[in-house]
Amino acid sequence: MKVVVIGGGVIGVHVALRLSQMGYSVFIVEREALGSGLTSRAAGIVTTQLVYTFDIELVKMSMELLEDLAQGSYRKTGFLSVNPESIVKAYTAILDKAGVHYEVFRDSEAADRWDCLTISEDEVVIYTAGDLLLDPGALMSSMRRRLNEAGVEVMEGVEASSLNINGSWVQHVATSVGRIKADLYVITAGPWSRGLLERAEVKLPLKLYRCQVFTVKLPAEIELPPGSDDVNNLYWAPESGKRVLLGNGRIEEVESVEKAIGSVKGSFVEEIAVKASKRIKGVLDAELVTGWSMPCSITPDGIPVVGKVHSLENLYVATGLDGYGLMRGPAIGWLLAELIATGRTPNLLRAMSPNRFGEKSYGDFEIIERHSRLPFEITWFSQSGRSK
Ligand SMILES: Cc1cc2nc3c(=O)[nH]c(=O)nc-3n(C[C@H](O)[C@H](O)[C@H](O)COP(=O)(O)OP(=O)(O)OC[C@H]3O[C@@H](n4cnc5c(N)ncnc54)[C@H](O)[C@@H]3O)c2cc1C
After folding, report:
1. How far away, in angstroms, is 136 Cα from ligand 1 center?
2. Predicted confidence (pLDDT) per residue in 89-124, tens digit
3. What is the mean pLDDT of residues 140-149?
4. For ligand 1, what atom is nearest to the CA of residue 325?
5. Whose CA is nearest to atom 41 of ligand 1?
6. Domains in the chain, ordered, with CATH?
C-alpha cells in the first residue's frame, strides 16, 4: 500500500519510518529539506516536566525512540524549573503519578547546586535529572540515514499545493512536480498543515502564534541545565561554550505563517533579557548572537490533533503541537503509524482525536497558554498503559 507523507519534520520522518517498517511503500513530500520547518528551529528541550500524564508518557516514549534511532543526537543534561511555592505540592503530585523522578531544591540549596541562579525564598526548583537536550540537526541526519536504509523515498524541494478530493476520498495530491497518487495521505506539515487542510475543506480549530528565541554570549561559562522559570514565563537552553538560548512561552497570535517567520523583535529581546538577568547571572552583560521567530500552531484545549480526519476515509493528520512538539514528535509519529496500520487509536493518542471539536469552536477560541494550565491536569484522561 502506498502512503504519501506531506512534510518531513520530526513527526513526518517518524511516521514514515514506522510505516515503512510495517511494509508500506512510503514517500515523503518535503517543500524544502528534511527538518527545515519548525524542527530545525527548536530549542531542543526534552523534558518530563509537563502537565498531562499522557504528554509525559509521550516524552518518555520519544526518549526511548531517540535512544534506539538517534543516539548521539542528544545529551542527558537534566532540566530544572523554577516555580512559585504555591503550585509545588499539586505539581509534584502530577509528577509522582506519572512516575517521574525529580528532586526539589529550596532557595539556598538551589543556589549551592547552581551558583549562577538567583532563587528567592518563596520559589522552589524542581530538577529532573533524566531529561535531555536534543540537537535537531543531528536527529534529522540520523533519521535521514534510517529512512534511506528502510527504502523510504524522500522527495525534497517538492511542495504539495492541494489535495484532490472525490466524495470522501483523497484522489491525489497536487505538487510542484505534478500529481502524486497514493492509497493513504498523511499531513505532517507543522503549522503549514492548516492551509493544506483548509484548501481540502477540512475544518480544524487551529490558531497560529509567534514563537521567538534568541541566543546570547555570556561573559563567562556557566553550569546550568536547560530550564524554565515558571514565575516569569521564561526558558533557556545552554548551547556550546558561553552561549545560551533564551525564549518564553507567551502567545502572540498571528493570522498567517508568513507573518511569524523572520528575525526576533528587539522589544522581545529586551524584555526577556531583563527578566533572564534577574534569574541567571551574567545575562545583562551578554551580547546578542542571533535570534529568530517561527509560527507554532495550537488548538482550543492546547492538545494536538492526531489521527484520521473524520470526513475523509484516507487522510490522516498530526499538527497543533504548540511550542513543544519536538519532544513529543517521535512518539506521536510512531503511534500515528500504528493507528494507520491497525485502525485502532493507541491510548496515548486518545485525547488527540481531530474530531473532538464541534463546528462552533472553529477559529473562534481563546488560546490557553501552557503556563496558565499548570498545575491542572485533565483527569478524565490519565492512563498508564502505552503501546509501541
Ligand atoms: C523557537 C522555537 C523553539 C522551540 N523549542 C522547542 C523545544 O525546545 N522543545 C520542543 O519539544 N519543541 C520546541 N518547539 C516546537 C517544535 O519545534 C515543533 O512543535 C515541532 O518541530 C513540530 O514538528 P512538525 O514535524 O510537526 O513540523 P515541522 O518541523 O514544521 O515540519 C513540517 C515540514 O513540512 C514542510 N512543509 C510545509 N508545507 C509543505 C507543503 N505544502 N508541501 C511539502 N512540505 C511542506 C516544512 O518545510 C517542514 O519541514 C519550538 C518551536 C519554536 C518555533
Report:
1. 10
2. 999 999 999 999 999 999 789 989 999 999 999 999
3. 98
4. 19
5. 160
6. 1-75+133-205+299-380 (3.50.50.60)
